[in-house]
Design brief:
28% of the residues lie in helices and 22% in strands. With 101 residues, the chain is of the alpha/beta class. The protein has a single domain, classed as Rossmann fold. Strand 1, helix 1 and strand 2 (35-40) form a beta-alpha-beta unit.
Length: 101
């Protein structure tokens, strides 16, 4: 079993993720001492952030530090896939995201 204070956690998301389902686990894990990385598909615009959604349809950009296409998933102890129908639909169409999962 991995101690959460030493865990490496990967969150995979793309534009349209449910905001609280990414930001709350990220915050709680960071507070517990885990190392959390966010991975997203490489952006055509060169942006290093993805836009989430909340129930009020407000949108917040969240930065990511890994590209799904080039990530080495072997260094992670846990994987989080935030909800949101758009997020799930987009990710399942990305072979690189499926490879990581």
């Amino acid at each position: 079993m991995v101690d959460i204070r030493q865990a490496n956690v990967l969150i995979i998301a793309t534009a349209g993720f449910e905001e609280t389902q990414l930001t709350v686990p990220q915050s709680k894990l960071n507070q517990a001492g885990a190392i959390v990385h966010i991975a997203a598909p490489k952006s055509r615009s060169g942006s290093e952030s993805i836009r989430g959604r909340d129930k009020a349809d407000r949108r917040k950009n969240v930065g990511y530090d890994q590209n799904i296409e080039t990530i080495n998933q072997n260094g992670y102890d846990a994987l989080i896939l935030p909800g949101g129908q758009i997020n799930r639909d987009k990710l399942r169409l990305k072979p690189s995201a499926l490879d990581v999962v």
